[in-house]
């Protein structure tokens, strides 16, 4: 075998090696470039849209809900003085109540419901019989509370909203002591919103004080099936994509305590008047 032949063979082998090296270098650069792409949501309709993202992932779409505000007349409760029927200044330490059974309708008369689910035990004294229900039970505990009910991916016009102040029929017979999620609002342990002596959910809890009074703070519970109130609110709400949307619900504390003299009325009288006033206290 001649030296010239051996030289050509060696050069050919080197060329193959170089080509292979170039190929693998190019491949590694390509993989590296792909790996450096920034992941994020590239859908402008999502709440977490990232204008700098190069590879789409993890989009979160807006939710429709309620923003509950406490008012005294036409002013926020925090910026006003709340007076009872006797002229005493009432300080609200906490107002807690249930909202449930939300049912929305859009411009096509389609019904929209909550898209979360929870397990309830609706058969009395039967902890084996759990039912997966729409989870639209919310406990409002302060002004500015927001609840999110359903996800939407396209704009729509909401025409109406029906809701219950209190626990709706769909969850009324639930047995809270069997619930797997002890932190769920229907578990009844938050603000003692379940009356274990009567096996019923309470609708409302009002903790209050009278300004400049030596008496200690007091708490009134309003409970029972007859204290629940159903409302239907007319809307003309155009949902906007890109962020969560909320319909504002105003709770008029001046209307809720109308006719009550906290210093003079006994707890039974106060409770009865709160029951009567709930219907007038919800303002859209």
Quick take:
Helices cover 20% and strands 36% of the residues.
Tell me the number of structural domains. Answer: 2
Low-confidence segments: none
Q: Report the count of strand segments.
A: 17
> Any idea what the shape is?
elongated
Largest sheet features: 8 strands, antiparallel
Average pLDDT, to the nearest integer? Answer: 89
Helix content: 10-25%
List strands and helices in order, with pairings.
Blueprint lengths: L2 H33 L3 E2 L14 E2 L6 E10 L2 E2 L13 E17 L4 E2 L4 E4 L10 E4 L3 E3 L4 E7 L5 E9 L3 H4 L21 E2 L4 E11 L7 E6 L5 E10 L6 E8 H4 L10 H15 E2 L1
Parallel strand pairs: 1-2, 3-16
Antiparallel strand pairs: 3-4, 3-10, 5-6, 5-9, 5-11, 5-13, 7-8, 11-15, 12-13, 13-14, 16-17
Explain the overall architecture:
This protein is an alpha+beta fold and 284 residues long. It folds into 2 domains: 1-35; 63-283, no CATH class. Helices cover 20% and strands 36% of the residues. The chain contains 4 helices and 17 strands. The chain is elongated.
């Amino acid at each position: 075998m001649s030296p010239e032949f051996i030289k050509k063979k060696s050069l050919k082998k080197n060329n193959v090696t170089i080509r292979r090296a170039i190929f693998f270098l190019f491949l590694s650069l390509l993989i590296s470039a792909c790996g450096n792409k920034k992941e994020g949501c590239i859908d402008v309709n999502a709440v977490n849209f990232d204008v700098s993202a190069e590879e789409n992932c993890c989009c979160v779409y807006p939710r429709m809900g309620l923003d509950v505000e406490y008012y005294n007349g036409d002013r926020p409760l925090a910026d006003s003085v709340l007076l009872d029927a006797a002229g005493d200044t009432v300080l609200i330490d906490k107002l807690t109540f249930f909202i449930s059974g939300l049912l929305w309708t859009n411009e096509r008369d389609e019904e929209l419901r909550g898209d979360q689910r929870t397990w309830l035990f609706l058969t009395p004294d039967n902890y084996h019989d759990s039912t997966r229900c729409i989870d639209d039970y919310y406990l409002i505990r302060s002004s500015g509370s927001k609840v999110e009910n359903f996800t939407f991916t396209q704009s729509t016009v909401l025409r109406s909203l029906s809701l219950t102040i209190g626990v709706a029929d769909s969850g009324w017979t639930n047995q809270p002591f069997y619930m797997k999620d002890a932190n769920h609002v229907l578990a009844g342990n938050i603000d003692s919103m379940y009356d274990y002596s009567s096996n019923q959910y309470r609708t409302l809890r009002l903790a209050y004080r009278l300004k400049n009074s030596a008496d200690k703070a007091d708490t009134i519970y309003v409970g029972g099936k007859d204290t629940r109130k159903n409302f239907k609110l007319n809307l003309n709400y155009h949902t906007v994509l890109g962020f969560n949307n909320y319909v504002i619900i105003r709770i008029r504390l001046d209307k809720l305590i109308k006719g009550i003299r906290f210093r003079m009325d006994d707890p039974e009288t106060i409770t009865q008047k709160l029951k009567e006033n709930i219907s007038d206290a919800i303002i859209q």
